[in-house]
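Thread amino acids onto this structure.
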């Protein structure tokens, strides 16, 4: 039995919550994964995993063993990288998750530069507005907008994205163009809500250096960034979005910015990764490239 390979398989089973998902993730036959875990448990003399028809979870011994495996595997990868070409040319699969708008409008156009610099890294990119559980789902790195809510993760700030308040021309013809926050009486908004936490978001404005939160009547609530802007374009009310996401609609005339003197606070964009992956050369290369990318003036569009 290759003990390091068995550790790698075991940690992935714990992170993904199942033998089949771990086998698919590591591109191994499912039978081989099952045999490896049986051999590992026999070698250690303890049961590492609870198995049911619906899920797999670590035992108390399994949790302790998982924590040690993670540290050992990270140290092994870093040690091998020091004495190999992998330090300069990292290789392997890197699993990344990010909001669909960030991926489609910012990352994807720039990504060929990263691939040219690191041709041996294979990227698996998830694009969605659902916050994934990086540890449970085996994701190496994620980009997230807004405050960091999971203190288990390492956070690397990338950018402060300017936001704008918008409405459709048709909506503004019907309800009027607000010139001040007092003018918002009688207006409506599109509400954004989290599909995970259920939290609902109103409008935020900065007035005289202070943050003011405004709640308006709504007829439509959505849980995706693209749907949020689409409802705004359809005339359902005011929205607030990062400028990069609304820029095309603003330039095309499908949306119109209002209340520029009371701009919403900028939205922080952060790279997150589990602490056990902070030594990975692949993660380090990708996050360092992200920091470099967002540091370039004008890459994340600013409001004119």
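Threaded sequence (304 positions):
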């Amino acid at each position: 039995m290759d003990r390091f390979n068995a550790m790698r398989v075991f940690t992935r089973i714990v992170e993904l919550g199942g033998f089949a998902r771990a086998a698919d993730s590591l591109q191994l036959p499912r039978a081989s994964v099952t045999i490896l875990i049986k051999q590992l448990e026999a070698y250690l003399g303890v049961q590492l995993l609870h198995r049911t028809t619906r899920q797999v979870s670590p035992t108390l011994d399994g949790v302790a063993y998982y924590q040690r495996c993670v540290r050992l595997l990270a140290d092994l990868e870093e040690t091998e990288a020091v004495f190999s070409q992998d330090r300069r040319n990292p290789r392997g699969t890197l699993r990344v998750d990010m909001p669909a708008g960030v991926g489609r409008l910012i990352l994807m156009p720039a990504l060929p530069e990263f691939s040219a610099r690191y041709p041996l890294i294979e990227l698996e990119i998830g694009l969605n507005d659902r916050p994934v559980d990086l540890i449970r789902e085996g994701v190496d790195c994620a980009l997230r907008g807004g405050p960091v809510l999971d203190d288990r993760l390492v956070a690397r700030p990338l950018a402060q994205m300017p936001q704008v308040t918008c409405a459709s021309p048709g909506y503004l013809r019907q309800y009027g163009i607000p010139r001040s926050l007092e003018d918002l009486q009688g207006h409506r908004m599109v509400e954004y809500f989290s599909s995970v936490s259920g939290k609902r978001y109103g409008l935020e404005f900065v007035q005289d250096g202070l943050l003011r939160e405004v709640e308006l009547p709504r007829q439509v609530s959505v849980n995706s960034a693209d749907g949020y802007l689409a409802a705004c374009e359809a005339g359902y009310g005011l929205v607030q979005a990062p400028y990069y996401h609304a820029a095309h609609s603003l330039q095309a005339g499908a949306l119109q910015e209002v209340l520029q003197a009371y701009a919403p606070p900028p939205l922080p964009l952060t790279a997150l990764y589990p602490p056990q992956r902070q030594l990975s050369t692949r993660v380090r290369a990708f996050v360092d490239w992200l920091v470099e990318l967002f540091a370039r003036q004008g890459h994340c569009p600013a409001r004119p």
